[in-house]
Amino acid sequence: MSEEMHEPGDALVSQLRLVEDQPLDERARAYVQLHEELRARLEGGDAASSRS
Fold first, then answer.
1. Residue 44 and residue 13: Cα distance in Å, rounded?
2. Cα(25)–Cα(5) distance, rounded to whole angstroms?
C-alpha cells in the first residue's frame, strides 16, 4: 500500500501551515482570504442541500 490516504482536512491543514509561515501582515490577509473561501463553501453547501 504505497499510496497514502488523505483525510478531508489535510488540504486545510496544509493551507494553514503556509499561512503561519508568512509575515504578520501577509498572514492577516491570508486568513481573511481563507475565511472567505470557507464561508463560500459552507454557504454553497447549504444552498445545494436545500435544493435536494
1. 21
2. 34
